[in-house]
Design goal:
The protein is an all-alpha fold. It has helices at residues 2-11, 31-45, 56-59, 62-74. The longest helix is centred in the middle third of the chain and has 15 residues, at 31-45.
Length: 75
């Protein structure tokens, strides 16, 4: 998860990703950020995020994003 936090901090270094649970709902991440994030996750974790998984619930917090990565890595 540390690597994920590092990626997120490269996008928005001023956000506390340990406590923020509204990255999408609070408009912290925009559509360009999501595209960048998906690309970085693919490169770093060798996990492809399918279109049907690109929903706010999966991107609202670092924790939910980490759960998504872990689940996709198992498949």
């Amino acid at each position: 998860m540390d690597e994920l936090i590092k990626i997120l901090k490269e996008i928005h270094p001023d956000v506390d990703y340990d406590t923020n649970k509204k990255l999408i709902d609070g408009k912290v991440l925009d559509s360009f950020d999501i595209i960048t994030l998906i690309s970085e996750i693919n490169d770093t974790f060798d996990v492809a995020i399918p279109a049907e998984e690109i929903i706010p619930e999966n991107f609202n917090s670092a924790e939910s994003l980490w759960e998504l990565i872990s689940r996709l890595a198992e498949d």
